[in-house]
Amino acid sequence: MIYGTGIDLTELSRIEAMLVQGLKLPEKVLTPAELAVFKTYGQKRQVEFLAGRFSAKESYSKAYGTGIGAAVGFQDVEILDNAAGRPAITKHPFDGPAWISISHTDQLVMTQVILERGKL
Q: Which residues participate in Mg(2+) binding (predicted)?
């Protein structure tokens, strides 16, 4: 049974502007494991990766029903690619399966998260 669903759109230019300004967005949004992956990419892919994880965590918090804040922070959710290269939510506070989809265009990233009641 579906507990919640969340969708988010994020403009890549917004994330890129924050990176250019020298804001510590990667350290705020990404877990240490995600940050290690981020650092292996070139500039364009870093923007896509960071925007995708930012959007995915926003989507997760919406599915959880709280938004980003005290109940669910950026560091509470971790999204890493599985062996097949598909993003998977590997750490999160909800007691049940969490599903993620991330899609990019040249200007936007769109993410959707579905949380299910019960365990697999």
A: 8, 58
